[in-house]
Amino acid sequence: MHYAPGKEDCPLPFSPFKSCTVPRPIGWLSTISKDGVPNLAPYSQWQNLTFDPPMVMFAANQLSTGERKHTVVNAEETGWFVWNMATYDLREAVNISAMELGANEDEFERAGVTPISCIDAPCPRVKESPAHFECRYLSTHRLRGHSAHGWVEVVYGEVVRIHVKDEVLTPEGKMDIPSIRPLARLGYYDYTSVTDVFEMRIPDASGQAADGLEGKSTILKHD
Question: What pTM value is reported for the model?
Fold first, then answer.
């Protein structure tokens, strides 16, 4: 089976595109509008970019009306967005926050989660989430789609503060992923959560390469 997207109809009843790049971590992002209204929404097109300094990105399709997502507008206007780790225990709240609501509606309240203050970012974070990134907005890159909904905005940010709850750390100082059960998207209406972890080390990796793979933190000294 093969087909050319945009030129030919998919021969399957469900498109396999989003179910090939899996699992995709959830960017459960909180922002605040310039008028002070909190916003919370999940994005499955979310990823780390680099670690030195830590940078992230998410891609937000426009609404079918052609309107831009509130998350993108808020990030641009305030200069900040916050990633909240989505977990299996929080799956219903994540799903509720995916609803298309008006700009004046508070998704924290609708999803039944608790907003707490950040240290640097002006927007709240989800208290029930085990980890958060406070992200300073860097830029937006718009890519043309074949429809109003197909247009996408890729948003870049730098992680300037990381929060992790002590109870989800192992004695070795790692994230206890099997107990956290981070949520991930599989395409269609399907999700999964991480319950199994295994280790593989690249042969002969050393120095800065090994530090990057191991996630060791460094503070760069600038002249």
Answer: 0.90
